[in-house]
């Protein structure tokens, strides 16, 4: 107490001391904000995830070259710099990850810390029969400690919309929310994924049915077609995806 009184007297009274404390608080807050922004800006990767045959690799090729090319199931990652069409000076690194069940988590582990954003590609035609597998993989992504901590923007790209039997983005969202809620309930007794504190990672809000708005990252859905309505000769329908990439870059 005597030391504090002496300091106040030396600085010109409590008013000046209060001002100095406020200034220090502002500076510390600014430095913390810069640190957080710096870590985010250092994450330049946009990961393309999804099951096998969802169309990730063709989508990857179309974004980079605009051209159709025959693809096959990936067994390793592919990466390239994608320059945004509206701002040639801004770019992100697109990384296409394998969708095979035995490889996908291994490659997610390798690149997740660098992810600025994630594009989770869904086969809109096969969705009804693959919904449980799609939800299983998406669940593993969403409860990952690093993904939860960094909260990269997430886009569910409902691909193959050029096919008549393709499911809409709205239906896909509803079905995924339902399946993810079921997974959360069935796994709550014996969780296998841990968050940064060592406890079980929580998907969504406890006591409420799951929906994507409960996640720490912003989640959007878009309909697209890497093949295009005219097949190999036509242009892809990626306008929604390209606009989203501009927004998250």
Strand-helix topology:
Blueprint: H1 2-11, H2 14-41, E1 45-50, H3 56-65, E2 78-83, E3 91-96, H4 104-111, E4 115-123, H5 127-142, H6 145-150, E5 153-159, H7 169-187, E6 219-223, H8 239-248
Helix pairs in contact: 5-7
Summed up, what is this model?
Belongs to the SRP receptor beta subunit family. With about 250 residues, the protein is an alpha/beta fold. It contains 8 helices and 6 strands.
Task: Describe the protein's architecture and organization.
- Belongs to the SRP receptor beta subunit family.
- This is Signal recognition particle receptor subunit beta.
- With 249 residues, this protein is an alpha/beta fold.
- Helix content is 43%, strand content 16%.
- Strands 2-3-1-4-5-6 form a six-stranded mixed β-sheet, with helices on both faces.
- Helix 5 (127-142) crosses helix 7 (169-187).
- The protein is globular, with a radius of gyration of 23 Å.
- It starts with a helix and ends with a helix.
